[in-house]
Amino acid sequence: MLKNLVVAADERAEALDRLILRGADRQLTGVDAGDIVVLEDSSGALTLHALATVLAETDTARRVLVRSRSYQQARAMRTLADRLLEGLGQDAVARLVVAGLDTEALDLETALAECSLKPTLALGRLPKTLSALDDWSRALARHSALATTEFSLCLGGNTKHMTRTMNTVLEQSFGEVWAGRGQGKFRALLAKAPRQSVLAHTAEETQIAAGTLLGLGGVFSGGREDRGGAYLADIACDLLPQLPRSAGGEAVRVLDLGCGNGSVSLRLLHRAQELSLPLVLTATDLDADAVRSATQTLAPYKAGEQTVTVTWDDASAGSASGSFDLLLLNPPFHEGTRLDATMVRPLLDAATRLLALDGQLLLVHNSHLRYRAQLEDRFEEVEQLGRNGTFTVLSACNPL
Ligand SMILES: C[S@@+](CC[C@H](N)C(=O)[O-])C[C@H]1O[C@@H](n2cnc3c(N)ncnc32)[C@H](O)[C@@H]1O
After folding, report:
1. pLDDT digits over 43-66, tens only?
2. Rounded to two decimals, what is the model's pTM?
3. CATH 3.40.50.150 fits 204-399, yes or no
4. What is the pLDDT of residues 235-272, one digit of tens each?
5. Given ligand 1 and candidates 259, 267, 326, 393, which is best to mutate, with the most ligand atoms within 8 Å of its CB?
6. How many angstroms is it from 359 CA to the middle of ligand 1?
7. Cβ pair 228, 330 in contact under 8 A
Protein backbone atom coordinates (compact mmCIF):
# COMPACT_ATOMS: atom_id res chain seq x y z
CA MET A 1 0.00 0.00 0.00
CA LEU A 2 2.78 2.44 0.90
CA LYS A 3 4.31 1.52 -2.43
CA ASN A 4 1.20 3.02 -4.14
CA LEU A 5 1.91 6.29 -2.38
CA VAL A 6 5.56 6.33 -3.44
CA VAL A 7 4.69 5.45 -7.05
CA ALA A 8 1.98 8.14 -7.17
CA ALA A 9 4.42 10.70 -5.70
CA ASP A 10 7.07 9.82 -8.29
CA GLU A 11 4.58 9.97 -11.16
CA ARG A 12 3.41 13.41 -10.16
CA ALA A 13 6.82 14.88 -9.30
CA GLU A 14 7.93 17.71 -11.56
CA ALA A 15 11.56 18.89 -11.82
CA LEU A 16 10.91 21.58 -9.20
CA ASP A 17 9.41 19.04 -6.76
CA ARG A 18 12.49 16.82 -7.09
CA LEU A 19 14.76 19.77 -6.34
CA ILE A 20 12.69 20.70 -3.26
CA LEU A 21 12.67 17.08 -2.01
CA ARG A 22 16.45 16.79 -2.38
CA GLY A 23 16.97 20.08 -0.52
CA ALA A 24 14.56 19.03 2.24
CA ASP A 25 16.11 15.55 2.66
CA ARG A 26 19.53 17.09 3.28
CA GLN A 27 18.06 19.22 6.06
CA LEU A 28 16.71 16.23 7.91
CA THR A 29 20.03 14.42 8.27
CA GLY A 30 20.77 14.10 11.98
CA VAL A 31 17.54 15.80 13.10
CA ASP A 32 14.87 14.08 15.22
CA ALA A 33 12.05 13.57 12.74
CA GLY A 34 8.82 15.39 13.59
CA ASP A 35 5.70 16.44 11.72
CA ILE A 36 6.00 17.84 8.20
CA VAL A 37 4.34 20.95 6.73
CA VAL A 38 3.70 21.08 2.98
CA LEU A 39 2.99 24.45 1.38
CA GLU A 40 1.35 25.16 -2.00
CA ASP A 41 1.90 21.70 -3.45
CA SER A 42 0.26 22.10 -6.86
CA SER A 43 1.33 18.68 -8.19
CA GLY A 44 0.58 16.69 -5.00
CA ALA A 45 4.01 15.01 -5.17
CA LEU A 46 5.41 16.75 -2.07
CA THR A 47 2.43 15.76 0.06
CA LEU A 48 2.44 12.13 -1.08
CA HIS A 49 6.18 11.89 -0.52
CA ALA A 50 5.79 13.38 2.98
CA LEU A 51 2.94 10.96 3.76
CA ALA A 52 5.00 7.98 2.58
CA THR A 53 7.85 9.17 4.86
CA VAL A 54 5.73 9.47 8.02
CA LEU A 55 3.78 6.26 7.38
CA ALA A 56 6.96 4.26 6.81
CA GLU A 57 7.63 4.54 10.55
CA THR A 58 5.29 2.29 12.47
CA ASP A 59 6.43 3.33 15.95
CA THR A 60 5.57 7.06 15.62
CA ALA A 61 2.40 9.02 14.83
CA ARG A 62 4.00 11.78 12.80
CA ARG A 63 1.56 13.85 10.74
CA VAL A 64 1.61 15.97 7.59
CA LEU A 65 -0.10 19.38 7.52
CA VAL A 66 -0.90 20.65 4.04
CA ARG A 67 -1.66 24.30 3.56
CA SER A 68 -2.98 25.40 0.15
CA ARG A 69 -4.50 28.78 -0.47
CA SER A 70 -6.77 27.40 -3.18
CA TYR A 71 -9.92 25.62 -2.00
CA GLN A 72 -9.89 23.48 -5.18
CA GLN A 73 -6.30 22.41 -4.51
CA ALA A 74 -7.00 21.61 -0.85
CA ARG A 75 -10.07 19.52 -1.76
CA ALA A 76 -8.22 17.69 -4.55
CA MET A 77 -5.39 16.81 -2.15
CA ARG A 78 -7.77 15.47 0.49
CA THR A 79 -9.60 13.34 -2.12
CA LEU A 80 -6.41 11.96 -3.66
CA ALA A 81 -4.87 11.09 -0.29
CA ASP A 82 -8.08 9.47 0.97
CA ARG A 83 -8.15 7.26 -2.13
CA LEU A 84 -4.51 6.24 -1.81
CA LEU A 85 -4.72 5.71 1.96
CA GLU A 86 -8.02 3.80 1.85
CA GLY A 87 -6.55 0.35 2.49
CA LEU A 88 -4.33 1.57 5.35
CA GLY A 89 -7.15 2.35 7.82
CA GLN A 90 -8.43 5.45 9.63
CA ASP A 91 -5.18 6.01 11.48
CA ALA A 92 -3.35 6.51 8.18
CA VAL A 93 -6.08 8.83 6.84
CA ALA A 94 -5.81 10.96 10.00
CA ARG A 95 -2.06 11.44 9.46
CA LEU A 96 -2.93 14.00 6.77
CA VAL A 97 -4.33 17.30 8.03
CA VAL A 98 -5.52 19.74 5.37
CA ALA A 99 -5.64 23.29 6.74
CA GLY A 100 -9.13 24.78 6.42
CA LEU A 101 -10.78 21.39 5.76
CA ASP A 102 -9.56 19.40 8.76
CA THR A 103 -8.94 22.50 10.89
CA GLU A 104 -11.13 25.49 11.77
CA ALA A 105 -8.21 27.80 11.04
CA LEU A 106 -7.29 28.86 7.53
CA ASP A 107 -3.96 30.38 8.55
CA LEU A 108 -0.85 28.34 9.11
CA GLU A 109 0.03 29.41 12.66
CA THR A 110 -3.41 28.76 14.12
CA ALA A 111 -3.79 25.50 12.16
CA LEU A 112 -0.46 24.24 13.59
CA ALA A 113 -1.52 25.16 17.12
CA GLU A 114 -5.02 23.71 16.68
CA CYS A 115 -3.55 20.27 15.90
CA SER A 116 -0.64 20.54 18.40
CA LEU A 117 1.81 19.73 15.60
CA LYS A 118 5.56 19.74 16.18
CA PRO A 119 7.05 20.14 12.71
CA THR A 120 10.75 19.77 12.08
CA LEU A 121 10.42 20.48 8.37
CA ALA A 122 8.33 22.64 6.03
CA LEU A 123 8.71 22.28 2.31
CA GLY A 124 6.91 23.65 -0.68
CA ARG A 125 6.82 26.11 -3.53
CA LEU A 126 7.81 29.72 -3.00
CA PRO A 127 4.78 32.00 -3.03
CA LYS A 128 4.40 34.72 -5.66
CA THR A 129 4.25 37.60 -3.17
CA LEU A 130 6.64 38.70 -0.44
CA SER A 131 3.67 39.25 1.83
CA ALA A 132 2.68 35.56 1.59
CA LEU A 133 6.30 34.56 2.29
CA ASP A 134 6.32 36.86 5.33
CA ASP A 135 3.05 35.28 6.50
CA TRP A 136 4.38 31.69 6.26
CA SER A 137 7.83 32.34 7.66
CA ARG A 138 6.57 34.25 10.70
CA ALA A 139 3.92 31.58 11.37
CA LEU A 140 6.48 28.75 11.16
CA ALA A 141 9.14 30.54 13.23
CA ARG A 142 6.66 31.56 15.94
CA HIS A 143 5.21 28.07 16.21
CA SER A 144 8.62 26.35 16.20
CA ALA A 145 9.95 28.68 18.87
CA LEU A 146 7.06 27.56 21.11
CA ALA A 147 7.38 23.88 20.18
CA THR A 148 11.14 23.96 20.94
CA THR A 149 11.95 21.56 18.11
CA GLU A 150 14.72 21.93 15.56
CA PHE A 151 13.12 23.27 12.42
CA SER A 152 14.11 23.73 8.75
CA LEU A 153 12.35 25.29 5.79
CA CYS A 154 12.94 24.49 2.12
CA LEU A 155 11.03 26.43 -0.55
CA GLY A 156 11.75 26.11 -4.26
CA GLY A 157 10.91 28.27 -7.23
CA ASN A 158 11.82 29.43 -10.69
CA THR A 159 14.94 31.61 -10.46
CA LYS A 160 13.44 34.21 -12.76
CA HIS A 161 10.79 34.96 -10.10
CA MET A 162 13.24 34.95 -7.16
CA THR A 163 14.73 38.11 -5.64
CA ARG A 164 17.22 38.93 -2.88
CA THR A 165 14.34 40.49 -0.94
CA MET A 166 12.97 36.97 -0.39
CA ASN A 167 16.12 36.21 1.65
CA THR A 168 15.59 39.43 3.61
CA VAL A 169 12.00 38.45 4.40
CA LEU A 170 13.10 35.00 5.62
CA GLU A 171 15.93 36.53 7.69
CA GLN A 172 13.35 38.40 9.79
CA SER A 173 12.13 35.04 11.09
CA PHE A 174 15.17 32.72 10.81
CA GLY A 175 18.78 33.05 11.98
CA GLU A 176 20.22 31.11 9.01
CA VAL A 177 19.02 31.64 5.43
CA TRP A 178 20.79 30.50 2.28
CA ALA A 179 20.16 29.55 -1.35
CA GLY A 180 20.67 25.95 -2.47
CA ARG A 181 22.50 25.02 -5.65
CA GLY A 182 20.31 25.76 -8.70
CA GLN A 183 19.35 23.12 -11.20
CA GLY A 184 18.09 24.13 -14.63
CA LYS A 185 15.76 27.04 -14.09
CA PHE A 186 15.01 26.19 -10.44
CA ARG A 187 16.57 26.91 -7.08
CA ALA A 188 15.57 26.45 -3.43
CA LEU A 189 15.79 28.88 -0.55
CA LEU A 190 16.53 27.27 2.79
CA ALA A 191 16.22 28.52 6.35
CA LYS A 192 16.73 27.22 9.87
CA ALA A 193 17.20 28.41 13.46
CA PRO A 194 13.84 30.16 14.04
CA ARG A 195 14.34 33.46 15.85
CA GLN A 196 12.79 34.07 19.27
CA SER A 197 10.05 36.69 19.72
CA VAL A 198 9.14 37.01 16.03
CA LEU A 199 6.07 39.24 15.64
CA ALA A 200 3.00 37.86 13.84
CA HIS A 201 2.38 38.76 10.20
CA THR A 202 0.31 41.95 10.09
CA ALA A 203 -2.33 42.93 7.57
CA GLU A 204 -1.67 45.69 5.06
CA GLU A 205 -4.21 48.44 5.84
CA THR A 206 -5.89 51.19 3.84
CA GLN A 207 -8.44 53.62 5.18
CA ILE A 208 -11.29 54.33 2.76
CA ALA A 209 -14.50 56.29 3.40
CA ALA A 210 -16.42 53.05 4.08
CA GLY A 211 -13.95 51.73 6.65
CA THR A 212 -10.59 49.95 6.86
CA LEU A 213 -9.44 47.51 4.20
CA LEU A 214 -7.17 44.72 5.45
CA GLY A 215 -5.03 42.43 3.31
CA LEU A 216 -3.25 39.33 4.64
CA GLY A 217 -0.74 37.03 2.93
CA GLY A 218 -1.02 36.85 -0.83
CA VAL A 219 -4.57 38.22 -1.26
CA PHE A 220 -5.30 39.95 -4.57
CA SER A 221 -4.53 43.70 -4.33
CA GLY A 222 -3.14 43.35 -0.76
CA GLY A 223 -4.87 45.78 1.59
CA ARG A 224 -5.60 48.25 -1.21
CA GLU A 225 -8.75 48.89 -3.20
CA ASP A 226 -8.67 47.52 -6.75
CA ARG A 227 -9.76 50.17 -9.28
CA GLY A 228 -12.07 47.75 -11.12
CA GLY A 229 -13.64 46.66 -7.84
CA ALA A 230 -14.09 50.31 -6.79
CA TYR A 231 -15.94 51.10 -10.03
CA LEU A 232 -18.17 48.04 -9.56
CA ALA A 233 -18.91 49.14 -5.97
CA ASP A 234 -19.80 52.71 -7.14
CA ILE A 235 -22.40 51.38 -9.55
CA ALA A 236 -23.75 48.74 -7.14
CA CYS A 237 -24.17 51.38 -4.39
CA ASP A 238 -26.16 53.64 -6.78
CA LEU A 239 -28.39 50.69 -7.70
CA LEU A 240 -29.03 49.54 -4.13
CA PRO A 241 -32.22 51.57 -3.37
CA GLN A 242 -33.94 50.32 -6.55
CA LEU A 243 -33.30 46.61 -6.09
CA PRO A 244 -36.24 44.23 -5.66
CA ARG A 245 -36.26 42.58 -2.22
CA SER A 246 -36.36 38.84 -1.72
CA ALA A 247 -39.86 37.37 -1.89
CA GLY A 248 -41.65 38.26 1.34
CA GLY A 249 -38.46 39.56 2.92
CA GLU A 250 -37.04 43.01 3.51
CA ALA A 251 -33.36 42.28 3.14
CA VAL A 252 -31.48 42.28 -0.15
CA ARG A 253 -29.47 39.07 -0.51
CA VAL A 254 -26.06 39.88 -1.97
CA LEU A 255 -23.24 37.60 -3.11
CA ASP A 256 -19.73 39.06 -3.56
CA LEU A 257 -18.32 36.26 -5.74
CA GLY A 258 -14.50 36.31 -5.57
CA CYS A 259 -14.48 38.86 -2.74
CA GLY A 260 -10.68 39.30 -2.41
CA ASN A 261 -9.96 41.56 0.58
CA GLY A 262 -13.68 42.41 0.91
CA SER A 263 -13.47 45.94 -0.51
CA VAL A 264 -16.63 45.73 -2.67
CA SER A 265 -18.66 44.23 0.20
CA LEU A 266 -17.38 46.89 2.60
CA ARG A 267 -18.51 49.70 0.30
CA LEU A 268 -21.93 48.10 -0.18
CA LEU A 269 -22.49 47.45 3.53
CA HIS A 270 -21.54 51.04 4.31
CA ARG A 271 -24.00 52.43 1.73
CA ALA A 272 -26.76 50.06 2.90
CA GLN A 273 -26.24 51.31 6.46
CA GLU A 274 -26.61 54.92 5.26
CA LEU A 275 -29.87 53.97 3.52
CA SER A 276 -31.09 51.90 6.53
CA LEU A 277 -31.46 49.00 4.12
CA PRO A 278 -30.78 45.56 5.57
CA LEU A 279 -28.47 43.30 3.58
CA VAL A 280 -27.83 39.60 3.93
CA LEU A 281 -24.39 39.50 2.39
CA THR A 282 -22.18 36.54 1.56
CA ALA A 283 -18.58 37.24 0.55
CA THR A 284 -16.83 34.18 -0.86
CA ASP A 285 -13.48 33.34 -2.40
CA LEU A 286 -11.39 30.38 -3.54
CA ASP A 287 -8.30 31.87 -1.90
CA ALA A 288 -7.84 31.26 1.84
CA ASP A 289 -5.89 34.52 2.21
CA ALA A 290 -8.81 36.41 0.63
CA VAL A 291 -11.20 34.80 3.11
CA ARG A 292 -8.93 35.70 6.05
CA SER A 293 -8.64 39.29 4.77
CA ALA A 294 -12.35 39.78 4.02
CA THR A 295 -13.25 38.32 7.42
CA GLN A 296 -11.14 41.03 9.08
CA THR A 297 -12.26 43.82 6.73
CA LEU A 298 -15.95 43.05 7.27
CA ALA A 299 -15.69 42.34 11.03
CA PRO A 300 -17.18 45.76 12.03
CA TYR A 301 -20.41 44.78 10.25
CA LYS A 302 -20.69 41.38 11.92
CA ALA A 303 -22.11 42.94 15.06
CA GLY A 304 -24.64 45.34 13.46
CA GLU A 305 -28.01 44.94 11.71
CA GLN A 306 -26.49 43.49 8.58
CA THR A 307 -25.92 39.76 8.19
CA VAL A 308 -22.43 39.01 6.89
CA THR A 309 -20.97 35.59 6.10
CA VAL A 310 -17.53 34.93 4.59
CA THR A 311 -16.88 31.52 3.01
CA TRP A 312 -13.95 29.58 1.50
CA ASP A 313 -15.47 27.86 -1.51
CA ASP A 314 -15.20 27.28 -5.25
CA ALA A 315 -17.64 29.53 -7.15
CA SER A 316 -19.93 29.49 -4.10
CA ALA A 317 -20.80 25.83 -4.75
CA GLY A 318 -22.08 25.52 -1.18
CA SER A 319 -24.81 28.19 -1.67
CA ALA A 320 -28.34 27.14 -2.61
CA SER A 321 -29.58 27.75 -6.16
CA GLY A 322 -31.63 30.92 -6.70
CA SER A 323 -30.62 32.43 -3.37
CA PHE A 324 -29.27 35.89 -4.31
CA ASP A 325 -30.92 39.11 -5.50
CA LEU A 326 -27.65 40.77 -6.43
CA LEU A 327 -24.40 39.13 -7.46
CA LEU A 328 -21.20 41.18 -7.76
CA LEU A 329 -18.29 39.93 -9.81
CA ASN A 330 -14.86 41.40 -10.54
CA PRO A 331 -13.49 38.24 -12.16
CA PRO A 332 -9.92 36.98 -12.31
CA PHE A 333 -8.38 37.39 -15.74
CA HIS A 334 -4.70 36.61 -15.15
CA GLU A 335 -3.09 33.20 -14.71
CA GLY A 336 0.35 34.29 -13.47
CA THR A 337 1.33 36.92 -16.04
CA ARG A 338 -0.80 35.42 -18.85
CA LEU A 339 -4.09 37.11 -19.77
CA ASP A 340 -6.92 34.59 -19.76
CA ALA A 341 -10.47 35.77 -20.48
CA THR A 342 -11.84 32.21 -20.08
CA MET A 343 -11.23 32.16 -16.31
CA VAL A 344 -14.59 33.88 -15.88
CA ARG A 345 -16.58 30.96 -17.32
CA PRO A 346 -17.12 28.82 -14.21
CA LEU A 347 -18.07 31.96 -12.30
CA LEU A 348 -20.65 32.98 -14.92
CA ASP A 349 -22.05 29.45 -14.94
CA ALA A 350 -22.32 29.66 -11.16
CA ALA A 351 -24.06 33.05 -11.44
CA THR A 352 -26.82 31.57 -13.63
CA ARG A 353 -27.47 28.98 -10.90
CA LEU A 354 -27.22 31.29 -7.91
CA LEU A 355 -29.41 34.23 -8.99
CA ALA A 356 -33.01 34.45 -7.76
CA LEU A 357 -35.81 34.89 -10.32
CA ASP A 358 -35.55 38.71 -10.42
CA GLY A 359 -31.88 38.62 -9.56
CA GLN A 360 -29.21 40.72 -11.23
CA LEU A 361 -25.53 40.14 -11.91
CA LEU A 362 -23.14 43.10 -12.07
CA LEU A 363 -19.78 42.37 -13.66
CA VAL A 364 -16.83 44.71 -14.08
CA HIS A 365 -14.10 44.12 -16.63
CA ASN A 366 -11.24 45.88 -18.33
CA SER A 367 -12.88 47.51 -21.34
CA HIS A 368 -10.40 45.98 -23.79
CA LEU A 369 -11.45 42.44 -22.77
CA ARG A 370 -14.60 41.17 -24.47
CA TYR A 371 -16.97 39.73 -21.87
CA ARG A 372 -20.33 40.80 -23.28
CA ALA A 373 -20.66 37.79 -25.63
CA GLN A 374 -19.98 35.42 -22.72
CA LEU A 375 -22.82 37.04 -20.77
CA GLU A 376 -25.16 36.98 -23.77
CA ASP A 377 -24.54 33.23 -24.10
CA ARG A 378 -25.99 32.78 -20.62
CA PHE A 379 -28.48 35.63 -19.95
CA GLU A 380 -31.50 37.01 -21.80
CA GLU A 381 -30.96 40.66 -20.80
CA VAL A 382 -27.49 42.18 -20.87
CA GLU A 383 -26.84 45.91 -20.71
CA GLN A 384 -23.96 48.26 -20.05
CA LEU A 385 -24.43 50.28 -16.85
CA GLY A 386 -21.19 52.22 -16.97
CA ARG A 387 -17.90 52.74 -18.73
CA ASN A 388 -14.93 54.91 -17.73
CA GLY A 389 -11.46 55.23 -19.25
CA THR A 390 -10.46 51.70 -18.19
CA PHE A 391 -13.45 49.65 -16.99
CA THR A 392 -16.92 48.61 -18.12
CA VAL A 393 -19.73 47.43 -15.84
CA LEU A 394 -22.33 45.11 -17.38
CA SER A 395 -25.63 44.03 -15.89
CA ALA A 396 -27.19 40.63 -16.69
CA CYS A 397 -30.64 39.27 -15.76
CA ASN A 398 -32.81 36.25 -16.64
CA PRO A 399 -30.49 33.29 -17.12
CA LEU A 400 -31.27 31.36 -20.32
C1 LIG B 1 -9.91 40.31 -9.65
S2 LIG B 1 -10.02 39.62 -8.03
C3 LIG B 1 -11.32 40.65 -7.34
C4 LIG B 1 -11.27 40.73 -5.84
C5 LIG B 1 -12.28 41.72 -5.22
N6 LIG B 1 -13.64 41.38 -5.56
C7 LIG B 1 -11.96 43.13 -5.66
O8 LIG B 1 -12.71 43.68 -6.48
O9 LIG B 1 -10.94 43.69 -5.19
C10 LIG B 1 -10.81 38.07 -8.35
C11 LIG B 1 -11.02 37.20 -7.10
O12 LIG B 1 -11.73 36.02 -7.51
C13 LIG B 1 -11.24 34.92 -6.78
N14 LIG B 1 -11.60 33.68 -7.51
C15 LIG B 1 -11.04 33.19 -8.63
N16 LIG B 1 -11.65 32.03 -8.99
C17 LIG B 1 -12.62 31.79 -8.06
C18 LIG B 1 -13.57 30.75 -7.86
N19 LIG B 1 -13.64 29.72 -8.69
N20 LIG B 1 -14.38 30.81 -6.79
C21 LIG B 1 -14.30 31.86 -5.93
N22 LIG B 1 -13.41 32.88 -6.06
C23 LIG B 1 -12.58 32.85 -7.11
C24 LIG B 1 -9.75 35.20 -6.68
O25 LIG B 1 -9.15 34.46 -5.64
C26 LIG B 1 -9.74 36.71 -6.45
O27 LIG B 1 -9.76 37.02 -5.08
Report:
1. 999 999 999 988 888 778 889 999
2. 0.95
3. yes
4. 999 999 888 665 555 789 999 999 999 999 999 999 99
5. 259
6. 20
7. yes
